[in-house]
Amino acid sequence: MKSLGFGACGTLRTNRKGIPEDDEFKQKMKKGDAPNFFHKGDILAVTWQDTKRVTALTTVHDNSLTPKSVRSKLRGGVPCQK
């Protein structure tokens, strides 16, 4: 599919059959820690901590980071005009 110009991206379960039991995937992380990136050929694996651990595989992205904006959970502020 790669030779035809198609790529793939999606999440995976690290306890699935056929997934290597590497220590990189099992490192303890805290929410907000920088994601871990791993390359093997054309496949990039990235793992980060959200409410639960998230691991994704992709053939269409690289390991560059983009700035993140954090939304505040504070309520209130300026009332809307009617």
Based on helices, strands and strand pairing, what is the structural class? mainly beta
Strands, total number: 4
Evaluate the radius of gyration.
18 Å
Sequence of secondary-structure elements: EHEEE
Low-pLDDT residue intervals, each spanning 5 or more residues: none
Helix share bin = under 10%
The general outline is globular
What oligomeric state do these chains adopt? Answer: single chain
Describe the model.
This protein is mostly beta strands and 82 residues long. It has a domain at 1-17 and 32-62. It contains one helix and four strands; from the N terminus they run E-H-E-E-E. The protein has a four-stranded antiparallel β-sheet with strand order 1-4-3-2, with no helix packed on it. Strand 2 (36-40) and strand 3 (43-49) form a beta hairpin. The radius of gyration is 18 Å and the shape is globular. The protein starts with 8 loop residues before the first strand and ends in a 24-residue tail after the last strand. The model has no long low-confidence stretch (mean pLDDT 77).
